[in-house]
Design a protein that fits this description.
Layout: E1 2-3, H1 4-28, H2 32-63, E2 65-66, E3 72-73, H3 82-92, H4 115-124, H5 131-137, H6 144-156, H7 160-169, H8 198-211
Parallel strand pairs: 1-2
Antiparallel strand pairs: 2-3
Helix pairs in contact: 1-2, 1-8, 2-6, 4-5, 6-7
């Protein structure tokens, strides 16, 4: 049984904890590399929690669970287990040729929190399923999930390509490209649209989005 509301509360709790830790880093003004190491770990924690929420949501609707309002969900595929359901997700995403099968390990799972995967599954599982509500919520969602993923990936897999992608999205924030030595430097700049510190703005937007579904 998959509990969407419970997973939302867990994500909200992790988000607040990440905010606390990032504010600690900001207030202590650590040496640059130390700042990067700490903030990369925090950002990864947030990203993994975001992915776990979406994994729980889709599996709840596919094989059974409880929704955000504590109502029991009538599963779309009650006859399959978790590994079979994830294989079917891969089929819906166009990554398998048949819906029948099962994955053998977690490394085969999709990137649940990826905005493109969220959107494609929402379009596929519209009725029955949560897709329509999620697609409507997308209208108020900005770049937070996409930018979170870009910065997280660049921070964890530190290479030139990752830094290039971070610099590409820097125009959305109040920071000079020349000031970006590590991907996580972006977290402590300001969002141009809201004036908030980036990590605060991302979390506020992600939590507000989930509350709409």
């Amino acid at each position: 049984m998959y509990y969407i509301r419970k997973e939302f509360i867990h994500f909200w709790t992790i988000s607040e904890y990440c905010l606390f830790l990032l504010n600690e880093i900001k207030s202590h003004a650590y040496e640059h590399r130390k700042n990067y190491v700490y903030s990369a770990g925090i950002l990864n924690l947030l990203w993994e929690s975001w992915n776990k929420f979406w994994r729980t949501l889709w599996l709840a609707y596919m094989i059974g669970g409880i929704d955000m309002d504590k109502n029991k969900i009538l599963p779309l595929y009650p006859q399959v287990d978790e590994y079979q359901a994830i294989y079917r997700v891969l089929y819906l995403l166009g990554k398998k040729n048949t819906p029948a099968g099962k994955i053998v390990a977690s490394y085969q799972e999709p990137r649940w929190g990826d905005i493109n995967i969220m959107h494609k599954l929402s379009q596929t599982l519209r009725n029955p399923g949560p897709g329509n509500k999620i697609l409507n919520a997308f209208s108020v969602l900005g770049n937070s999930p996409k930018h979170l993923q870009i910065v997280r990936n660049a921070a964890i897999h530190l290479d030139r390509d990752g830094i290039t992608k971070v610099k590409y999205i820097a125009s959305c924030y109040r920071i000079s490209i020349s000031k970006i030595k590590y991907p996580t430097d972006l977290l402590f700049s300001q969002d141009l649209a809201t004036g908030k510190i980036v990590f605060r703005n991302w979390i506020d937007e992600l939590v507000a989005f989930l509350q709409l579904i």
